[in-house]
Amino acid sequence: FDPRHYLGTHCYGLPKTGPHRLRFLLESVKDLRETLKKKGSTLVVRKGKPEDVVCDLITQLGSVIAVVFHEEVRETL
């Protein structure tokens, strides 16, 4: 969870993630974790800036072969 997603927007100061969206996100992550657990896997969930958290996680795990990600498209006004 990137803390920057829960701050206000640049233009109007409105939250990027409101309470309903946050609840949906938390429920989705919980459901995904439970589904993976039933299949003998797990889900790693961290809070922080992805550029820091991913680096720390790779260091902690030590045997990472690949990292896959996507970049959020940002609108320009």
Automatic annotation (TrEMBL):
Gene3D superfamilies: HUPs. GO terms for biological process: photoreactive repair. InterPro entries: Crypto/Photolyase_N_sf (IPR036155), Cryptochrome/DNA_photolyase_1 (IPR002081), DNA_photolyase_N (IPR006050), Rossmann-like_a/b/a_fold (IPR014729). One of its GO terms (molecular function) is FAD binding. Residues 1-77 form the Photolyase/cryptochrome alpha/beta domain. The keyword tRNA processing does not apply. It holds the Pfam family DNA_photolyase. It comes from the Eukaryota. The keyword Protein biosynthesis does not apply. Keywords: Chromophore. PANTHER family: CRYPTOCHROME, CRYPTOCHROME DASH. This is CRYD protein. It comes from Illadopsis cleaveri.
